[in-house]
Amino acid sequence: MEKFELHILGCGSALPTTRHFATSQVVNVRDKLYMIDCGEGSQLQFRKSRLKFSRLNHIFISHLHGDHCFGLLGLISTLNLLGRTAELHIHSPKGLETLLAPMLSFFCRQMTYKVLFHEFETKEPGMIYEDRSLTVTTIPLRHRMPCCGFLFAEKQRPNHIIREMVDFYEVPVYELNRIKNGEDYVTPEGKTISNSLLTRPSDLPRSYAYCSDTIYMPEIAEQIKGVDLLFHEATFANADLPRAKETFHTTAAQAGEIAKAAGVKKLVIGHFSARYEDENVLLKEASDVFPETVLAKETLCLEV
Amino acid sequence: MEKFELHILGCGSALPTTRHFATSQVVNVRDKLYMIDCGEGSQLQFRKSRLKFSRLNHIFISHLHGDHCFGLLGLISTLNLLGRTAELHIHSPKGLETLLAPMLSFFCRQMTYKVLFHEFETKEPGMIYEDRSLTVTTIPLRHRMPCCGFLFAEKQRPNHIIREMVDFYEVPVYELNRIKNGEDYVTPEGKTISNSLLTRPSDLPRSYAYCSDTIYMPEIAEQIKGVDLLFHEATFANADLPRAKETFHTTAAQAGEIAKAAGVKKLVIGHFSARYEDENVLLKEASDVFPETVLAKETLCLEV
């Protein structure tokens, strides 16, 4: 299986503590790194997770609250000091470029590389990134300001050729691409060789969904149905449900409900309120609803 | 002795590493906290050092490079979330308020407290803070942009009254303030009682000097003569002297020279370049010139 991993850089909420950094994650898909959110200290946690800046070309910002983007200036500045030349793409809801521009032009005067901002709509799901093997689609969320989660989905890869069978039927090289993509082979004598004899199916495409920050939104289960890994915010415990509603956040049990309704394989919860010294209360409440739940923590790495 | 301590929150230079945070320190004078510089992650280190935000009212920024001020937004934002009401004063060279204003007004919409910016001249030393027991004076430095260090000096405190002697001579209460401040006492019979019989001298005033970032400036020895503790940047080792000059930084040996010429009691060096895995090379080079040298490190606390 090719690499598809999630690195947690920070999983605290608005108030950083001695236990948690502000929100940031890195998704590693076949050694291309994608950052999701960039709270203060993300560049430090990035290094601590032994990730390579040169592999990072895209950053996705869920919404414009400080605990999700105050680390951008430091990161951009560090990449400049390191002499980066590759473009860096930052995807976010409207307004980020305008906000950062004066600081960037003052603090990063002679840029060795370009930072390109891409603003996305937050009302409807939209594909905001695509390459040969991956798509990233926004997941509209409901928070105190425009906010989206992100769905990272591998594309279905072509079938694997069974070398021995292809040799046996003397299939010409120029036919191989068609066969990889599922077509049968017709010999010069007109005999049809079924594709299933010539190929093995490739691995099933995997997917990862990131949902933070948001009030409980059961309707997102539809969009994230069957993902292999779901990160969902679980800022509060059941006892603080009124506070969760008021601040447009989710409880751990509600995160479990979403995971269950969506039939995901695994749930990782994070964005913990600073009030919980021991997050096991959150783990228990989510696990009671959806047993395959783990707690996020700094430098944790999960396979998708 | 009343409290006068230095807490190192971060002592790396422009490129943060897994070993060092960007520059920030806290000076604790009788439980009032003064922050010097505020690199990314300073609020995290502040908590880790078990300091109290409620005791912090003044922040001094040496110059407007990101590694000395990118932590301000996160800190200001956190204090707001905590419901702070006391004013926060930020002292810096010109330009900081203008730079931060758009970000502050977007990210900290409903402020529970006021942030007041005070801009200082960087060419001549100037007293920028004073209270009953302390003054803070700028130390003009030479860097790639306007930059100042800071001299924290305790004021001479009044003498201590010797209770037994005052009772013996039946000194009236209204005379005590004059006597504390060094005057003799004249009895109703016209006899002069020497002040030295009535008081013990108070502790000598202590002082701390912070000098970072700067090219080697032997002339600052004059202004920081005899300080109890000197923090001086020592970004580079001797072998990288040309790089130090080029980037307007100091070597460890040069920091030692300054400490020696100023006759300080103790030198702490920091602002280490990321290139040194082992900073003992810097410690050795500074100690060879000035033996009373220690290396800064995160969460280190030194008595002044």
Automatic annotation (TrEMBL), chains A, B:
The keyword Nucleotidyltransferase does not apply. SUPFAM superfamilies: Metallo-hydrolase/oxidoreductase. GO terms for molecular function: 3'-tRNA processing endoribonuclease activity; zinc ion binding. Zn(2+) 1 binds at residues 63, 65, 143, 213. The active site is at 67 (proton acceptor). Zn(2+) 2 binds at residues 67-68, 213, 271. Binds 2 Zn(2+) ions. It catalyses: Endonucleolytic cleavage of RNA, removing extra 3' nucleotides from tRNA precursor, generating 3' termini of tRNAs. A 3'-hydroxy group is left at the tRNA terminus and a 5'-phosphoryl group is left at the trailer molecule. Signal peptide: none annotated. Keywords: Endonuclease, Hydrolase, Metal-binding, Nuclease, tRNA processing, Zinc. Its cofactor is Zn(2+). Residues 207-272 form the Metallo-beta-lactamase domain. Zinc phosphodiesterase, which displays some tRNA 3'-processing endonuclease activity. Probably involved in tRNA maturation, by removing a 3'-trailer from precursor tRNA. HAMAP family: RNase_Z_BN. Homodimer. Belongs to the RNase Z family. This is Ribonuclease Z. It comes from Bacteroides cellulosilyticus CL02T12C19. The lineage of its organism: Bacteria, Pseudomonadati, Bacteroidota, Bacteroidia, Bacteroidales. The gene is rnz.
